[in-house]
């Protein structure tokens, strides 16, 4: 009984600390930060959701402001699935990221077309710098009652045509041993990423209507093990 009481108190303490961290992040960042991304394929702007994924947004913005993403490439492009970046430089040397972050996939946001989410390995809390943009609705990457999902923390609000064009690029194996497929034959380099100073901090449009998970999308279309395959495909490489 005493051990159970100690565990319960510890859980409350951890939960309180996490909530305090999230509150501090929300106070420090705008509710909807905008990031301008300039690439060799064209430019785009993404909008982030601080209140839905505060730790993820803070982590991403820190990478942006430090210049970590400048000169990196879209190293993985799967037509009709995702365009992934944030892990390799223009020579396809793997960059050294910071610490991993907690999984915030249970925030009600869905992996719909045009949303931005964190890539990770099979371990739920392993996301660091790599992210991907959904080329189509990938609701199989959303969380389920029995497993974690992939954290959605933003969406493309300008330049989706650039991402669509990237999705059609010819791909193959890359120069790094672990990049065995899905590497664009012509490198797509992120020249720069920068936080845009908004004149107002309002969302670009109705967030809930565009990226919030709907009950009807909560299950895979065919009810098979497609979820497991989707998980494997979304792992950071």
Q: Could you explain how this protein is built, in words?
A:
This protein is of the alpha+beta class. 26% of the residues lie in helices and 23% in strands. It is built from five helices and ten strands; from the N terminus they run αββαβββββαβββαα. The protein has helices at 2-28, 54-66, 160-167, 207-211, 226-234, and strands spanning 34-39, 42-48, 72-78, 82-89, 115-118, 131-134, 152-158, 171-172, 183-184, 189-196. The strands form two sheets. An eight-stranded antiparallel barrel has the order 1-2-7-5-6-4-3-10. Strands 8-9 form a two-stranded antiparallel sheet.
What layout of secondary structure does this protein have?
Blueprint: H1 2-28, E1 34-39, E2 42-48, H2 54-66, E3 72-78, E4 82-89, E5 115-118, E6 131-134, E7 152-158, H3 160-167, E8 171-172, E9 183-184, E10 189-196, H4 207-211, H5 226-234
Antiparallel strand pairs: 1-2, 1-10, 2-7, 3-4, 3-10, 4-6, 5-6, 5-7, 8-9
Count helical runs. Answer: 5
Low-confidence runs of at least 5 consecutive residues? 4-20, 214-229
Helical fraction equals 25-40%
What is the rounded distance between the termini? 45 Å
Bin the strand percentage.
15-25%
Major beta-sheet overview: 8 strands, antiparallel, barrel
Query: Widest sheet: strand order?
Result: 1-2-7-5-6-4-3-10
Outline:
The chain is of the alpha+beta class and 237 residues long.
What brief labels describe this structure?
237 residues; eight-stranded antiparallel β-barrel; globular
């Amino acid at each position: 009984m005493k051990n159970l009481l100690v565990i319960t108190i510890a859980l409350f303490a951890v939960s309180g600390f996490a909530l305090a961290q999230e509150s501090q992040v929300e106070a420090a960042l705008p509710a909807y930060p905008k990031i301008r991304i300039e690439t060799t394929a064209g430019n785009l702007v993404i909008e982030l959701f601080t209140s839905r994924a505060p730790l993820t947004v803070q982590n991403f913005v820190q990478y942006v402001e430090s210049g970590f993403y400048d000169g990196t490439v879209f190293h993985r492009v799967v037509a009709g699935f995702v365009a992934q970046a944030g892990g390799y430089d223009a020579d396809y040397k793997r960059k050294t990221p910071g610490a991993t972050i907690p999984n915030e996939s249970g925030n009600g946001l869905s992996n719909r077309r045009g949303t931005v989410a964190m890539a990770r390995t099979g371990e739920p809390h392993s996301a660091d710098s790599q992210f991907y943009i959904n080329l189509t609705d990938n609701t199989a990457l959303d969380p389920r009652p029995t497993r974690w999902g992939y954290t959605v923390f933003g969406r493309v609000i300008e330049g989706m045509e650039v991402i669509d064009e990237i999705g059609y690029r010819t791909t193959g194996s890359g120069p790094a041993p672990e990049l065995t497929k899905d590497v664009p034959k012509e490198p797509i380099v992120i020249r720069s990423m920068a936080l845009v100073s908004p004149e107002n901090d309002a969302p670009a449009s109705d967030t809930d209507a565009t990226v919030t998970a709907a009950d009807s999308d909560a299950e895979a279309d065919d009810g098979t093990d497609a979820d497991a395959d989707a998980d494997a495909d979304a792992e950071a490489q």
